[in-house]
Fold this sequence. Notes:
By secondary structure, the chain is mostly helical. It contains 2 helices and no strands. The longest helix has 33 residues, at 28-60. It starts with 6 loop residues before the first helix and ends in a 21-residue tail after the last helix. The model is unreliable at 73-81 (pLDDT under 50).
Amino acid sequence: MTKDIKFEDALSNLEDIVKKLENGELSLEESLVAFEKGIQLSRICSKQLDAAEKKIEILVKGEDGKLETKSFGPESSEETS
């Protein structure tokens, strides 16, 4: 499993694995393999979300180093503190 997988692809694969596990039709061996893949995908998603959160935090940090609350809407560029 590659760590360069896109977030959306990893999440989709993870959702497929969850459905298969919930379905209950996999053998024990297949369930363990699916669970292991699911854990790997979950960690990949988590790391990518953490990286995105840090990037957003850097982008909204003011010149004085304090975080500013800003709207993500295209019409609003003002602070909403």
